[in-house]
Specification:
8 strands; alpha+beta; 192 residues
Length: 192
């Protein structure tokens, strides 16, 4: 069967599931040290965005405005700065985990316009953009409804749908798309 990114992604998921089973076998009630290491590993994965998380929050769906002749076409499409403003508003309102089109957003993630698409973690996506944010649903919803970025987008008929969710999953950062080493290759630990 020929290789494709879909087939390879499926194979990677299978291997990761096998790896998780092997890791879980090491954690057992008879060995407190291994249990402690497993707990520390899980905590590190949580803090670094390398594990799926679930909780309440909001889902924001963004779509370009319908075409019009009386407005500059660039005003009718979603730009990377629009998304950045929304992410910042969500962070300021207490969002604890963020994803765009199921790409986990870390502090090192960037979103770039690339023609009519946006590049997220080196992967290209067309509209609609679906932003998931875990945090207090009411606080996140209110912050976005009052957001200057959202108000301006709606003036230009850019579609902004904000929905509260009591439970949803924000997936982990997909290291096999872009290794984390590439994101920190210019950093060096300072020994005090």
């Amino acid at each position: 069967e020929p290789f494709s990114s879909f087939n390879l992604s499926g194979k990677i998921r299978e291997i990761e599931e096998e790896l998780e089973k092997i890791k879980d076998q090491y954690a057992n009630k008879d060995n407190p040290l291994l249990n402690e290491l497993a707990w520390e590993r899980d905590e590190a994965l949580l803090y670094s965005g390398m594990t799926d998380v679930k909780g309440g929050g909001v889902i924001v769906t963004l779509n370009d405005a319908p075409a019009r002749t009386d407005v500059d076409p660039s005003e009718l499409i979603i730009h990377d700065m629009d998304i950045l403003k929304i992410l910042n508003d969500l962070r300021a309102a207490g969002a604890q985990a963020l994803a765009i089109n199921d790409e986990r957003i870390l502090s090192t993630s960037k979103q770039f316009c690339a023609g009519p698409t946006i590049l997220i973690n080196q992967n290209r996506y067309p509209v609609p953009y679906i932003i998931k944010a875990i945090g207090d649903p009411d606080a996140l919803y209110t912050a976005l409804e009052e957001s200057e970025a959202v108000i301006v987008m709606r003036i230009y008929n850019i579609q902004v749908d904000i929905r509260k969710e009591q439970e949803m999953v924000v997936p982990r950062f997909k290291t096999y798309y872009q290794g984390i080493n590439k994101l920190i290759s210019g950093l060096e630990v300072v020994n005090q």
